[in-house]
Amino acid sequence: MKSSKTWLTAIMISVLAISLSAQRGGRGGAPGQQGTPTPPGPPRVEELKKEVAADIETMKVATQQMVDQVFSFGELGFQEFETSKYLTAILEKNGFKIERGFAGIPTAWVATWGTGKPVIALGSDIDDIPQASQKPGVGYHDPIIEGAPGHGEGHNSGVPLNITAALAVKKIMEREKLPGTLKLWPGVAEELVGAKMYFIRAGMFRDVDVNLFAHVGSNLGVGWGAGFGTGLQSIEYTFKGESAHAAAQPWRGRSALDAVELMDIGWNFRREHLRLQQRSHSVIVNGGDQPNVVPPNASVWYYFRETDYPHIKELREIGDTMAKAAAMMTNTEVTSRILGAAWPQHMNKTVAETMYTNIQSIGLPKWDDADITLAKGIQRELKQPQIGLATQVGQLRGGLDPEQNMGGPSDDIGDVSWNVPTATLGYPANIPNLPGHNWANAIAMATPIAHKGVTAGAKVQAMTVIDLLMRPELVQQAWDYFRNVQTKDQKYIPFISDKDQPALWLNEKIMQKYGPEMKKLYYDPTKYKTYLEQLGIKYPTVR
Ligand SMILES: [Zn+2]
Q1: How far is the C-alpha of 487 from the C-alpha of 14, rounded, in Å?
Q2: What's the pTM value of the predicted model, to 2 decimals?
Q3: Which residues of 25-59 are buried (b: 16+ CB within 10 A; e: fewer)?
Q4: Nearest 5°: phi and psi at 466?
Q5: Where does residue 177 fall: left (phi above 0), alpha (psi -120 to 50 degrees), or beta otherwise?
Q6: Contacts with 474 (C-beta within 8 Å, 6 or more apart), sequence order
């Protein structure tokens, strides 16, 4: 099923849409078909859902501590060592069986509890953003450690949400003797789209019936179908030339940096003649050592993003051609390797509709004046509309005509969504109208805004798990959609080969540089109620 014709058929019939951009910052999707929230289940199911939500309300302190703790670790992709050690210890203490080092990735793990079917997986990302260090609760740029990484997206909150939900559901499963298995997993190196395709290759989802993902946002929300956004291939090109004295005998040198620059120039001319849906960007990760030495090697790292599998493949092929051409022009050699990849997302209709009913029943947290003052403070600072925080739950998203998808961000949950029925819960732990991948997106992430948002999200997640455990027809419907609509004409084809390996070395040096300073500021819940208290920050601090 590799031809673009069958793919086109697939996108024509696969009607609808999740807006990743909406999840990430509250920007709305195109209006369209909305889907139908799943009707309530039998009375006993609804009673247990109420009970699980009430129980999660009593777990608020533990939830807050997890959110603050992971925030304080602030680890980049593939370097989430403290984060994973901490989260797995909590799960292990609560009776989960832990498999560490999953798929050969040291910071990856799977935590399993329960027996039999259905197997419900709960995943969320754990890595953070370079140079996004920021004091929580302070409504302007004020790094904890200048230059250090920080949770400038909010990935500190998702696994704490899933753990809260799982522990509450587990209590009910034990008491009611409900069959089923809970399987928690971390989105390692999501900012590099570096791990989930390897999780799939290593069989993480082989026995999973439904996967519930959670991603931080500024509202409660969920959607289904294909949607706004892209998939991508992340490729590093390395050119090899020959060094020489740049002034004495420059004719003896062959500059690898020249090749990188020519490739970039070529790509930027070609850009005008690519589809409007594409997004492509690069950074020069190695541009040589010093000007008087002709650079013998140089590397440039590209993200090639497009809205469907054939176009992503094609964009990367154009990149490969251009790299070869640049090597020919400069008499250098080029090699390439894949550092990450993501399929465009396609979320499950039944799972999203079930989740949406629970979103409607939980609703948004009650924000207080301090929360709103912080939100408006940073919105004012960034010259954005001062709308404060979300006050109304959004629509069940869907109905996007694939032709309307003009591109956007990517997430390697896309790969998972093509292997098992999946939906992503967006939860309101962050502030609307922020730039994303930025210090500003860290401000709320260890404050009551994040704590309340995670508690609300955990309730929705737990209620959805109860639905899936107790209403087998929902799991059946989810697979009907997956088999007969979503994957009818398009099957998952991994971007990685059997030989490719995860890019475990990425971010190692940055963490070596900043880790020791960051360690001194890890949150200590035995001494301080909150991380704000430990850092001595008055909440909120705004200009
Ligand atoms: Zn993310």
Answers
A1: 9
A2: 0.93
A3: bbbebeebbbbebbeebeeebeebbebbbebbeeb
A4: -60, -45
A5: left
A6: 38, 350, 351, 354, 467, 468
Whole-number Å distance, alpha carbon 458 to ligand 1 midpoint, is: 17
CA dist 489 and 13 (Å) reads 10
Contact yes or no for 305/410 (Cβ under 8 A): yes
Q: What is the DSSP letter of 191?
A: G
Gap between the Cα atoms of 357 and 460, Å rounded: 9
pLDDT tens-digit series, residues 17-58 = 333 333 333 333 334 466 899 999 999 999 999 999 999 999
Distance 15 CA to ligand 1 centre (A): 25
pLDDT tens-digit series, residues 429-458 = 999 999 999 999 999 999 999 999 999 999
How far apart CA 25 and CA 436 sit, in angstroms, is 7
Question: Distance (Å, rounded) from C-alpha 137 to C-alpha 371?
Answer: 9
Pairwise CA distance, residues 31 & 79, whole Å: 40
CA 158–ligand 1 middle distance (angstroms): 10
Q: Where are the beta strands (DSSP E) in 101-149?
A: 109-115, 119-125
Helix axes 472-481, 349-362, angle to 10 degrees: 130
Q: Are 378 and 435 in contact (CB under 8 A)?
A: no
Alpha-carbon distance of 411 to 398, in angstroms, equals 18
| 3-class state of residue 336 by DSSP | strand
Please tell me the distance between residue 153's alpha carbon and the centre of ligand 1 in angstroms.
6
Give the length of the chain. Answer: 543
Q: What's the token pair of residue 352?
A: 């999203």
The distance in angstroms from the start CA to the end CA of the chain is: 57
Residues 6+ apart with CB under 8 A from 362: 53, 220, 456, 459, 460, 463
Cα 208 to ligand 1 centre (Å): 22
CA of 506 to the centre of ligand 1 (A): 18
What is the SS3 assignment for 176? Answer: helix
The Å distance, Cα 236 to ligand 1 centre, comes to 22
